[in-house]
Write a structure and sequence with these properties.
By secondary structure, this protein is an alpha+beta fold. It has one domain. It is built from 15 helices and 27 strands.
Length: 487
């Protein structure tokens, strides 16, 4: 990232758009309860219309595949059994899965209704085209920030058009509308009203967001809640720790919350890391048992839920690798026809398991710049690149191998023109910006629940090509949006 000492655009513009961002909730909460705007670009990235339309077609197919895989409990237990000894969270999730669903000899059908709210992240590689980086099936947030980023660029175009045009990559490009917040809320509200109708309850349906204690990424969450409230849904927020003493069972497997009543949707924005289930106050002999049992308790009730334990397993890096290594014909067992299966396969980047053979191959034959080493962690900070891969592989014990996977490294197009990143109300010239494209989908009981056949908007996170971690929250990423170019 190259920094210019001089102001590149007028400071008045910077102040104006930073205030717009804060006013519209594009912010992180600070420890002193003030707000700081999220970092963002002042102009959108360009993508060929045909590329985006293909991603919009194939991403709901990926969600359809994952939705069916997540309900194939024999397959989940058999194919992921090797993971249990290699990663503590996986061990807990697999144990919970057996408690919820039984085993192949004694299969149990839990009452929970699967609501798959998923974000599939892509990079548009210079040579390979657009390929999947990862599936996000739990805590797959930031659809509101994605929509707000597109609106921020619309504000720039309206209020500061001369600045916007000066930094636009393609002058004839068409801004791409993003209704991610609204479409995701529609999918959630549809599920909530379905559960409410099942119980013949009066009043508003109720949505529970399970959150982390003292979280700073709250405004993105609140934006979704406001949209749900517009659709007639009551919203409440609780941590796992609070829920461990506040949930109880009502009649006919109704999930109930103290001082609230029946719950219709549970949406987990926590639970993707082992620490989310840890409470030092409980002083329990088995770490994280109580709070993970709270998650189990929820699944034993008739409530729309994202993410179910099986959805979290089905969107893991290990399952992504297994699906990537399968022939397309095998996807037909999960409801895809061959044309759909081939479309999904076309966007999956090559992956390899970590074992003695691949470690030996990597050390002698692999081009280290063509691969990235990933563990099962969600969010930023879980990838190893270049020379550090060999070092990491050499330090792994054999039982840790299954927690890791090698994945083809993607090199997206850099923008043809520099842009300006705004962070902490300061402007920085970035000459090598690359972008990650996340597409949201929403499916309830395996069926699409948006106005766009399951598609529910997008999130663009851009970063300097020289930076490995591109998260908005945990890396060097900035919020961005898309304009379409006719190729």
């Amino acid at each position: 990232m190259k920094t210019s000492e001089n102001r590149i655009i007028p400071q008045q513009v910077v102040e104006d758009i930073c205030e717009w961002a804060i006013m519209h909730g594009v912010a992180f909460r600070q420890p002193d309860n003030t707000a700081k705007h999220c970092p963002f670009s002042i102009s959108p990235m360009s993508i060929e219309r045909s590329v985006f339309e293909y991603l919009k077609y194939v991403t709901p197919l990926i969600a359809k595949l994952v939705s069916h895989v997540s309900e194939d409990h024999d397959f989940l237990q058999q194919s992921l059994a090797h993971m249990e000894k290699s990663e503590p969270l996986f061990e807990r999730l697999m144990a919970l899965h057996r408690e919820v669903h039984g085993d192949s000899k004694n299969r149990v059908t839990p009452a929970r209704q699967p609501l798959l709210l998923m974000r599939t992240d892509f990079m548009d590689d210079r040579e390979l085209g657009a390929k999947v980086i990862e599936f996000n099936g739990i805590a797959a947030g930031m659809a509101p920030f994605g929509q707000r980023a597109a609106e921020l660029h619309q504000f720039m175009q309206t209020q500061w058009n001369h600045v916007y045009q000066a930094w636009l990559e393609e002058k004839t490009a068409t801004p791409l509308e993003n209704a991610g917040m609204e479409q995701l809320a529609l999918g959630i509200a549809t599920a909530a009203k379905s559960v409410k109708a099942h119980f013949n309850d009066g009043g508003k349906p109720t949505f529970l967001m399970v959150v982390q204690k003292n979280e700073d990424n709250v405004y993105d969450q609140h934006l979704l809640e406001v949209e749900l409230q517009k659709l007639g849904v009551r919203t409440v927020r609780r941590t796992f720790e609070q829920l461990s003493t506040q949930l109880y069972s009502g009649e006919h497997q109704r999930l109930m919350l103290d001082n609230v009543g029946g719950l219709d949707v549970v949406y987990l924005r926590a639970g993707y890391q082992f620490m989310d289930y840890f409470s030092p106050e409980l002083n329990e002999p088995i770490c994280c048992h109580t709070l993970s049992q709270t998650r189990l308790f929820m699944e034993q009730h008739y409530v729309a839920m994202n993410a179910t334990i099986s959805q979290q397993l089905a969107t893991s890096k290990s399952m992504q690798m297994l699906l990537t290594m399968m022939p397309a014909e095998e996807y037909e067992r999960w409801g895809l026809n061959l044309e759909e299966a081939l479309a999904v396969k076309s966007v999956l980047a090559e992956m390899k398991p970590v074992n003695a053979d691949t470690i030996a191959w990597f050390g002698t034959s692999a081009n280290i710049d063509h691969w990235v080493l990933k563990n099962q962690g969600e969010g930023g900070g879980h990838c190893v690149f270049g020379k550090d891969i060999s070092k990491q592989l050499s330090q792994l014990s054999e039982e840790e191998y299954n927690a890791w996977a090698l994945m083809q490294r993607l090199y997206p197009h850099e923008r043809d023109v520099p842009t300006i990143a705004i962070r902490d109300a300061q402007q920085t010239l970035v000459s090598d910006l690359v972008s990650e494209i996340g597409l949201f989908t929403a499916h309830y009981q395996g069926k699409p629940v948006t106005e766009l056949d399951g598609y529910a908007g997008y999130l663009i996170r851009s970063k300097p090509a020289s930076e490995n971690e591109g998260g908005i929250h945990s890396g060097k990423g900035i919020l961005d949006s898309l304009v379409l170019v006719d190729g």
